[in-house]
Amino acid sequence: MTFPPSSRRARMSAAAAAVALCLLSPVAAAGEVEDVEISPGHTLVLQPEDGRTYSVKESESAPLPAGWSVITEKGALRITASATAAPSESATIEVKDAAGGTETFDVRVEDETPANEPAPSSSSSSSGASAWLDRLAGRVASFFSS
């Protein structure tokens, strides 16, 4: 089946936009040692620059919350929060500079409850998946209404 060129361009543009959104991840600049917030399921990429290297800080308890993943290579760090991460979850990142100095910052899961939407109550009878779909439907509706 052959599509007109304008239809192919539109489909390719839509696919490229979807891929870009999926691959979009916040990238911290070198020298930032402030706490960083990410959404559940998203990835933070830290590239080694100016002699800085990144690693997950070792601790007696588990260094990462359950479901989180981390990839390190040559001083770079890629940390992904679990798709089901709670706003209270965080991981501590250690930054070492070329002079041997060490600093730390936390990667925290942001609270995604909008200010005008009440937080879900623990006595809610809906399941987690149902509540997630309800929130998604509300966000889609608000997106198209603006």
Describe the protein:
With 146 residues, this protein is of the alpha/beta class. The protein is 25% helix and 26% strand. It contains two helices and eight strands, in the order αββββββββα. The protein has helices at residues 5-23, 128-145, and strands at 27-28, 36-38, 43-46, 53-56, 69-73, 76-80, 90-96, 102-109. The radius of gyration is 20 Å and the shape is extended.
Which descriptors would you attach to this protein?
8 strands; 25% helix; four-stranded mixed β-sheet; alpha/beta; 26% strand
Indicate the multimeric state: single chain
Give a quick account of the main beta sheet: strands, pairing sense, barrel closure: 4 strands, mixed
Radius of gyration: 20 Å
Global structural class: alpha/beta
Number of strands: 8
User: What is the tally of helical segments?
Assistant: 2
Shape: extended
Separation, N- and C-terminal Cα atoms: 37 Å
Amount of beta strand: 25-35%
Percent range of helical residues: 25-40%
What is the N-to-C succession of helices and strands? HEEEEEEEEH
Strand order of the largest sheet: 1-3-6-5
Report low-confidence residues grouped into runs of 5 or more. 17-32, 122-126
Average pLDDT figure: 74
Task: Summarize this structure briefly.
It is built from two helices and eight strands.
Layout of secondary structure:
Elements: H1 5-23, E1 27-28, E2 36-38, E3 43-46, E4 53-56, E5 69-73, E6 76-80, E7 90-96, E8 102-109, H2 128-145
Parallel strand pairs: 1-3, 2-8
Antiparallel strand pairs: 3-6, 4-7, 5-6, 7-8
